[in-house]
């Protein structure tokens, strides 16, 4: 059975490719999903790829990932990065590596975007690489999963 990773996307990311191309590029979320599936396949990882505009739904999916004992999780919490202690708490309860991804460089934007509550629960954070950040996040997560599951010698 392949290891499964969850890739969760927060509010408004369903609109990707339709607005603000100078910040987020022209790719759609469907194209991001395709990139994620191709990247995960190279690491023999199965993918659950989801997007929601609702904080509670995202929290329920993190609980679902916990119950399913997923190998790891990639999350772009979008606007909730900067507001959600509840998503942070759900991620803290997940016993698997978490990589937070942002397409834009949040540190070079408005001051309110420079802090992410979610980062406290993240094993790695990637920002500023556009949608390629998702592929980088999966590569990094795969290395973390390998390190955790490799038998000790
Ligand atoms: O850079 C990122 O990936 C963000 O997580 C994107 C969020 C933003 O609130 C974060 O500060 C940084 C925004 C997601 C909404 O994306 C849209 C893209 C195109 C059109 C409309 C929304």
Can you characterise this structure?
- The chain is α/β, with parallel strands linked by helices.
- Helices cover 37% and strands 18% of the residues.
- The protein has helices spanning 21-24, 29-42, 55-67, 85-92, 132-149; strands at 3-9, 45-51, 72-76, 98-102, 124-127.
- The protein has a five-stranded parallel sheet, with helices on both faces.
- Strand 3 (72-76), helix 4 and strand 4 (98-102) form a beta-alpha-beta unit.
- Helix 2 runs parallel beside helix 5 and helix 3 (55-67) packs parallel to helix 4 (85-92).
- The two termini are 23 Å apart.
- Residues 12-13, 15-16, 18-20, 24, 76, 78-79, 81, 102-104, 106, 113 line the site of ligand CA2.
Short description:
The protein has 153 residues and is an alpha/beta fold. It has five helices and five strands; from the N terminus they run E-H-H-E-H-E-H-E-E-H.
Biggest sheet: strands, sense, closure?
A: 5 strands, parallel
Number of helices: 5
Give the amount of beta strand, in percent. 15-25%
Kindly identify the CATH topology. Answer: Rossmann fold
Radius of gyration: 15 Å
- The largest beta-sheet arranges its strands as 2-1-3-4-5
Q: What is the residue-averaged pLDDT?
A: 97
CATH architecture: 3-Layer(aba) Sandwich
Distance between the termini: 23 Å
Uncertain ranges: none
How many beta-strand runs?
Answer: 5
Please, how many domains? 1
CATH superfamily: Dehydroquinase, class II
Structural class: alpha/beta
Helix/strand order, N-terminal first: EHHEHEHEEH
